[in-house]
């Protein structure tokens, strides 16, 4: 017997009581009972998004909400600035090009954060840019972008700022309204502690105006239809009822803990992970690390794929390897969602054991020692 | 205490053991464990669809798969024939027009089935039609279309036939390959006995060829990406893990019962419902009724909305009212998915009680008497 531990940056573990809530009798979505749930969910989720604006819920994975942000705000031939420093930043560009939107790319070195002054210059050079797309946490590199500074720059222009906070929300600070982020896109299987299958999108007044003029084709992800239904606490298409029941439950958990405490918990686990990793002699990959996931350079001589495989097959822990150009070069430990201090201790301990087995020069207990020290403060 | 009974044509009840299966620990989707599940699911679902071709699984509601059928098979300015005799047939037309596809409409009188000879004439008059869209069961009217005959006609042309079998599959016969249906679209919350959140799409070789030339923009629902992932038993985007675990479980249930028996059970429940309804003096709405849902004309003098409301609030039974032009004029009793004889008995009994309360001239027990007679044969 060895328990299964999910420590990839999504899907993340789902609390047992939420699993059971979703296992309750399915009710119809067009009933006063479900409408009451949805009304509550619509209000509570705004607090997590730190916005007064509507947050739409789609039955889709996060990529669907990314597509919704492109096809509802832009028109054919519009120009968009894509801040890309990893696989998920690039995805925004792919979606734009699939719909005939012209893209100006800001290629950030993988592992580094985007710089607001570069964004400013690019917006000056391309005054016709209609939207800027960025990630909060770039899951593929573990980098947190400084959305606050980027938002300051975008706010000065007529462009809107769209942020993929799919893996970042609730781990990294994101003050949607205060900072002036127009659209925040998220998914259920990360900080929200739910299974995959729901995607979320918040919409500012500035962004809402773009919807009227957008001529890109859409149907399932049409925000005009979503807005109309939202006003009646309804959804245009059949919602994923059981997942929304779970959402109701996790929103209560998050708001009971308090969003500040949720962020502090993630910060604490992330710092201990980074401290432990460095204390065992390994190197962090991200210059500006996210509190959702820690990317670690695979030590010289070790095999990155073998590490992920041994963690999975022998320790029953799912961690993530590197994607794209980073394949085999980094591994990623998530401390995201339903996670506490002993999950972090376990992750560090397993990393220490497996790297030693792979022949790395690791002193047993060093990683956990540092984490314990930090946790006992 | 009164139990909740879900008797609308979707969502439908979910078996308890499936609810518990979905409440098991969430595993990562890029693991050998999940891949083994998906490999099994991909094979088993073909048997339910009666096809040798791939069946793609989307994290979306059924409308998403309807959109996928349009945006992957057609190009801007292409012509499509829309067989519409209800709300869901019309939806295909809406999606086509949203993407710049020209639509030729075959307006079937609501409550009647589409005629294959009319389809034939329309295809002759419009030899440039690239795709024909139809429903198997038109959920809004309870009509079953004769897909076998329609397929015969379409097969003679270069057009492909797309069938929305969202509410019909597993209740009404659909021999996808044998009849030559190119694309079948379905959803999880109907005959599949799952919560909403998954959509399915089967793809023939003839339809696959259209994907290559299609120039409509798409990303989330891109079948080229889906095909590439499918070959590796993977999905392009994060799949709805818990729902797919449930899918694995319901597919086992359906194949254990045997698809022929599943169809016979639905036929038996539908016939008893129709028999009971007529025996209490009510009139059926659909001329060619589906075995998924029975549409009943609201009797003269009764208030259709009051009936649905009393069923819901006093009997705790969700049935469906009429949609669009049929609002208040019909109600719909589903016998779809996880349903047996005593669910039908309960539905008929509650209908009898509530209509009598609403002042209709109903003789208690008449509806159930007929059903009992049919069930005891």
Structural features, described:
- 2 copies of one chain form a homodimer.
- With about 375 residues, chain A is an alpha/beta fold.
- The first copy, chain A, folds into 2 domains: about 120 residues, Aspartate Aminotransferase, domain 1 (Alpha-Beta Complex), CATH 3.90.1150.10; about 240 residues, Aspartate Aminotransferase, domain 2, CATH 3.40.640.10.
- Chain A is about 45% helix and about 15% strand.
- Chain A has 14 helices and 14 strands.
- In chain A, strands 2-10-9-8-5-3-4 form a 7-stranded mixed β-sheet, sandwiched between helices.
- In chain A, helix 7 links the parallel strand 8 and strand 9.
- Chain A is globular and about 60 Å long.
- The model of chain A has no long low-confidence stretch (mean pLDDT about 95).
- The interface between A and B is large, with 53 and 53 residues.
Q: What are the salient characteristics of this protein?
A:
seven-stranded mixed beta sheet; three-stranded antiparallel beta sheet; 377 residues; alpha/beta; 14 strands; Aspartate Aminotransferase, domain 1; Aspartate Aminotransferase, domain 2; homodimer
């Amino acid at each position: 017997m060895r328990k299964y531990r999910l420590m990839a940056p999504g899907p993340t573990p789902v609390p047992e009581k939420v699993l059971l809530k979703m296992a309750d009798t399915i009710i119809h979505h067009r009933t006063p009972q479900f409408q009451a749930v949805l009304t509550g969910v619509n209000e509570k989720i705004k607090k997590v998004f730190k916005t007064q604006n509507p947050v739409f819920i789609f039955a889709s994975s996060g990529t669907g909400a990314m597509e919704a942000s492109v096809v509802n705000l832009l028109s054919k031939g519009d120009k968009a600035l894509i801040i890309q420093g990893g696989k998920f930043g690039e995805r925004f560009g792919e979606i734009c090009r699939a719909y005939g939107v012209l893209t100006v790319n800001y290629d950030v070195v993988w592992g580094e954060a985007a710089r607001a002054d570069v964004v400013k210059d690019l917006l000056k050079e391309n005054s016709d840019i209609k939207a800027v797309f960025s990630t909060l946490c770039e899951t593929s590199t573990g980098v947190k972008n400084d959305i606050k500074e980027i938002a300051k720059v975008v706010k000065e222009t007529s462009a809107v700022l769209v942020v993929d906070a799919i893996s970042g929300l609730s781990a990294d600070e994101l003050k949607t309204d205060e900072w002036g982020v127009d659209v925040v896109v998220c998914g259920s299987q990360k900080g929200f502690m739910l299974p995959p299958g729901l995607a979320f999108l918040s919409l500012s007044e500035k962004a809402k105006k773009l919807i009227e003029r957008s001529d890109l084709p859409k149907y399932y992800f049409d925000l005009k239809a979503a807005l109309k239904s939202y006003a009646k606490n309804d959804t245009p298409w059949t919602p994923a009822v059981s997942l929304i029941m779970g959402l109701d439950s996790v929103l209560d958990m998050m708001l009971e803990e308090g969003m500040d405490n949720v962020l502090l918990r993630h910060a604490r686990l992330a710092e201990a992970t980074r401290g432990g990793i460095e204390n065992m002699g390994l190197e962090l990959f991200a210059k500006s690390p996210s509190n959702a996931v820690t990317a670690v350079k695979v030590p010289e001589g070790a095999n990155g794929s073998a590490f992920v495989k041994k963690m999975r097959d022998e320790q029953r822990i799912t961690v993530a390897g590197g994607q794209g150009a980073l394949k085999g070069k980094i591994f990623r430990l998530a401390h995201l969602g339903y996670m506490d201090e002993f999950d972090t201790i376990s992750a560090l301990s397993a990393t220490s054991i497996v790297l030693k087995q792979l022949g790395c020069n690791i002193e047993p207990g060093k990683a956990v020692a540092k984490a314990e020290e930090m946790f006992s403060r």
